[in-house]
Amino acid sequence: SDIKMDFRLVTDYDRQKKPTYEPLTIKNNNGVDMAEQPFEKHTLRDEQRRVLTWMRETESSGTPFVEEEVVESTIHEIGYRAEGRATRDILRRGGILAQDVGFGKTVVMLALIKETSDETTVPPHPGAIPTNATLILLPSHLVNQWHEEIEKFLPELKNKVIVIGSGKTLEFSKLTIKEVLQAEIIIVAWDNCIKPP
């Protein structure tokens, strides 16, 4: 999108002034319609179905967001501050599912993957592999748990899941484009993405 640029010179700059912020409001899913049950053999609870509806809407329609970068310089002796700002409007998709332990976040995410597996929402980038696979980066101790949950809730994807556990960087680097194109889900322990010291 178009980038807007502006600047200002603040001549009565005072570091003692504290900015005022809007109060934090925690959103909830009260009043959100429940999604249809996504699995044939397993049932989601009502609150999980409402979260699934919210996640689908957040993925598909997005939320307008203004990305902003500010650069400033101050001259303390005379109390001036010069400020340059660049902004652009973007459409933010997705969000954070931050429910308590035991809520069933994994199964809700798998339901979202199932419901959106045929949708292409992100335009391809030059040089990128045009795959519909969902990449899941996890701490190493959760890789096997996620793989087991996928086999339980999405057995139809059994042969379309790539799992790269902890310390398998070499295995990760040997993935072929064909394997990535055929995969529906790629699970990677995130320590494979961290450069060793």
Which features does this protein show?
6 strands, three-stranded parallel beta sheet, 197 residues, extended, alpha/beta, 5 helices, 24% strand, three-stranded antiparallel beta sheet
Mean pLDDT: 85
Count of individual beta strands: 6
Q: Which residues form runs of ≥5 with pLDDT under 50?
A: none
| Element-by-element helix/strand order | EHEEHEHEHHE
Task: Please state the oligomeric state of the protein chains shown.
Answer: single chain
Helix content: 10-25%
Specify Rg, calculated over alpha carbons.
Answer: 23 Å
Briefly note the structural class of the backbone: alpha/beta
Topology:
Elements: E1 3-10, H1 46-60, E2 63-75, E3 80-92, H2 105-116, E4 134-138, H3 143-153, E5 161-164, H4 169-173, H5 177-182, E6 185-189
Parallel strand pairs: 4-6, 5-6
Antiparallel strand pairs: 1-3, 2-3
Summed up:
The chain is of the alpha/beta class. It has 5 helices and 6 strands. A hairpin with a 4-residue loop joins strand 2 and strand 3.
